[in-house]
Request: fold
Amino acid sequence: MNVTVTPPKLAVVGTRPIRPDGVDKVTGRANYGADYKVAGMLHGKILRSPHAHARIVSIDTKRAEALKGVKAVITGKDFPLLGDMELPMGEAAMNVGHISENCIARDKALYQGHAIAAVAATTVAIAEEALELIDVVYEVLPHVLDVEAAMAPDAPLLHEKMLTKGVTPPAEKPSNVAMFMRLARGDAAKAIDASDVIVEGRYDTAAVHQGYIEPHACVCTYGADGQVVVWSSSQGQFMVRSLTSVIAGIDQADIKAIPAEIGGGFGGKTLVYLEPLATILSKKSGRAVKMVMSRDEVFRASGPTSSSVMTVRAGATKDGKFTGFELDLRFAAGAYPGSPVFAALMAGLAHYELTDFAIDAYDVVTNTPKVAAYRAPGAPISTFAVESAIDDLAIKLGMDPIALRVKNGVKDGSLATYGVTFSDIGFHETLESIRNHEHYSAPLGPNQGRGVAAGYWFNAGGESSANIAINEDGTATVVSGCPDIGGSRASMAIMAAEVLGLPIEKVRCTVADTTAIAYSGLTGGSRVTVSTGAAVVKAANDIVEQLKGRAAITWDVPVDQVEWSNGAAICLSGDQKGEKLSLADLAYRFGRTGGPVANQASVNLHGIGPGFAVHLCDVEVDPETGGVTVLRYTAAQDVGRAIHASYVEGQMQGGAAQGIGWALNEEYIFDTDGKMENPGFLDYRMPVASDLPMIDTIMIEVPCRNTPFGAKGVGEVPIVPPLAAVANAVRAAIGKRPHSLPLSPPRLHALMANGH
Amino acid sequence: MAKVVLSVNLSEQFAGGLDSFDVEAANVRQMIRELDKRYPGLGSHIEDKMAVAIDGIIYPHPARQAIAPNSEVVIIPRLPGG
Reply:
């Protein structure tokens, strides 16, 4: 059952038109990164480190270069050294030096799978054969995979000169802790000690991959005139251009980045792996170069999210008021600094009113693949610990878990733990929608349990551009600068149609390359609907003004005597008072009234609304095997205003599904040498449709005052509560608190048998 | 005067443990200049690495954003997004 709480109805916003990308995708006609072909194209392959940690003593490529069919071989020496260089990239700065060294190693291989060299050849088979002819001498070094082991004083150092940032006094001795941060208010320890009930626990989570179906893929051409064209699957063509420019040492004006259809990203395609390598291989060979990762490479060499170890201590009064929280977060960043631990620190307790808390966070490098963003980066992890502790508080207090969250949840005017004051938020409405749902009181059977958890995500705004042109027949073309991952072509078309007064079928949206539209930030941070949407609305409003002007010329009346309503100009005075000119009528006359009508708008949107989600999960645990079946799942979320309701529900269901996989089965498993043992979907167990029940959705619409139609980002927060919701349901089913994810059958069986 | 709020780290690193103080500034750029004068390195650290939230609205790359006399300016890390 889907329930929607709906504000006043609009003509197109909130409806469910047929998705414009659907037919191409289900018929196989959509062009993904690996579908591009260029005449004379070569195939690029990458030699990867067999060692988790090794110094690269020498690389001899002569034998590979001599192989017939090999046209170019590159190593790290073909790229500029960027050191610790940072590049502004939307909401957060990226360390492009680290991204460059992650694309291809320089002095050291920092994880098994780290790129060492690359080859371009006339066939994939020749390229792969050539990889075996590259002679690399390694000095194998001790490695460290685990976050706590990496923090030990005698741990092998990945970066010998790295000093911990954020500590006082400043660090003098190198370590694997890249950065420390503390967020605190009041006196948490004292407040907890004085509480009526106290809970504490140690939690850990495994590294998990974003699991996008489409592997990383690109085709790059470096022309004789130095002009570069990049076709690739990414979460931002401007990101691809910026990073390829810096890493390969080419001016941005010389690079045209063309976005392919994208088969999933979830944050994992917010940086580059292949494009700079294919570009330099193309430069060396004089031919176009195509590179496509295998699934094995996707797992071994593209970003998972962090594994973690966390401790939490919390207290409450006997009537359920939180007194204090202490949280310690230690996240593995992989080979280079940059885990999402600081977002986890800010998000973990943001949805509760607290006067006394202390959160410590450590960003720690390990000999594992460099982590990449994954949907609400970091928040699901810290929320697992926090919402498990809150479940324990509810049990100790004998209190309904929703009532406990209602008592402590933030509302308009509340001060978030990270310091901002909330407005236009619908957390309480979201909690109540779950409490009032029939699912919340449905009966359960033996070995079954019900869990609830809440989650918070900031959502992003930022820079976006959009073009709108009115076609000669009165239809409209919208052009976006952001790849469409979650349905943005549909939502952009809907918003344009709403403002212009056109039926949705008369508006089409396309995604442009970097030469056809002004800069737009990444498709990430749940930002495109609101930010690119704001650019679309701005452009559409300008077009309405232009159209009113054209109608005024036609009727020979002042423009303020023209009204725009339902896709037509209406004359308010003079002989033609009451006459209408439709958009098609006006478009037919464009040549006589001043020429084409179009507009390009760019925005830098701030003040976007955060996301709140509350999930409810029923599970059954097999007491013999420890296997968990998710019986029923309901996800409620404050969505601001749903632009395309079905896509919003799809985001909520997709986030829940990924979170359930994270909770139950997904994990990177390494052998003692640091080699991933399960780099394929057979052994890395993601949920498939048959594993899950239909995920019911409840959209709560508390509009944001600063965004188009009140919309809020919806793509990330639905992955925040599921880890804890599932774990709390398992706790209810077996009577023991799970502290380690995933809750795979062997782990759960051990918990049931031994209590840990 | 606007109130500036720092995280524990920043206050310890740059401001001798003081985690909130008043600043006379009409916009973020002026605030950064003033902070650098008072606590050398803090303003440029904020400009290069941090976001600010002015009265609850987060600005990842602030410069000209206005600060009202009674505004609260919270210094926070820039956030990633997936």
User: Anything to note?
Assistant: Confidence is low (pLDDT under 50) at residues 1-5 of chain A.
